[in-house]
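Recap quiz, item 2
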Amino acid sequence: MRKSLAAAALVATLLWSGAAAAQTSWIHVRVMQDDGAKVNVNLPMSLIEVALDIAGKEIMKEGHHMRFGDHSDVDLEDIRRIWSELRESGDAEYVNAVDGDDHVRIFREGDRVSIHVDDTGSDAADNAKVRIEVPFSIVDVLLQGEGDELNLGGAIRELANADLGSLVSIRDDETEVDVWIDNNSSQN
Amino acid sequence: MMKLLALTLIPVALVGGVVANSSVLLVDVNDGDTHIFVPVPLSLAQVALAFAPDAVKRIQVPELAEYIPHLERVIQELRDAPDAVFVTVEDGNDFVTVTKVGDLLKVSVIGGRNEKVDVSIPMAALTAMLNAYDAEEGYFRTSKLVGALRAAPSGQLVHVLDGNEEVSVRMW
């Protein structure tokens, strides 16, 4: 579970950290561990955009597009079609799956899609919660790429126009991770 | 006799004039037993580098060429960003901060056993250093790199404290 949490945090942070925004937008990452270790990161979104451009040479092809499907059984065109239908619907619960101690919910509230993962194991040490908030407009732009390409660069720039707030929240028995965007340069 | 004295003083006066108008890098190393203090006038260092072998005059980094525009953008964005604490890390007795203050990017590392590192990176100097890069040929001109330090403001650039050992680099 911990590896999953770490992977989720990494992916989410990578996605969100690439966002371009107005000069006043800041992305914050806070990691706290129960042994007292703390990491706080506060970076202007404009700087992240530039950093992403540099990283793009390694992780993106043809500008700000990233290929999808090379190692996936899911066709991106299918996802676009499904997304198109979903976005026409109102608030709804898309997924509610319980598997043993794991509970996964994916639902729409307003202009956001929320992904909630709860691990309520009998062993308190295994308890974990993951909360990911995805603004609708981000997914719209992400899926605007041609063919099997995702418009990652466009999506993260779009984040600048999305509502500010929490993007990722992860809690387990040892670690708390929060990623959010606001107009403050500090976390106070 | 007066002519000889005048001839002797002319080069001294010239060198003195160059040094007087030059920024000076002060390197101070103290390990408890030995104390070394080296003032390095940047102008003189640049002149000396002009007579150095090509291997010293140029630092070949051809792979950097494609990243120079990106680095320039990163530095410009940093310079444009408001002052802020970008990163703090606390882990036991170790404490790390990365802060922007004016045109300086300050990195501070505090360790548990009387260990401390403070580095102030003048972003104007970083920009000047990038200008010392010849993108077509793929190398840095060391004399220009040294000259780039002139863009640094007066004050401490590096301070390292490790037990009884202390190193300080200051611009004057």
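Chain A has five helices and ten strands.
Chain A touches chain B through 20 residues (CB under 8 Å).
End of item.
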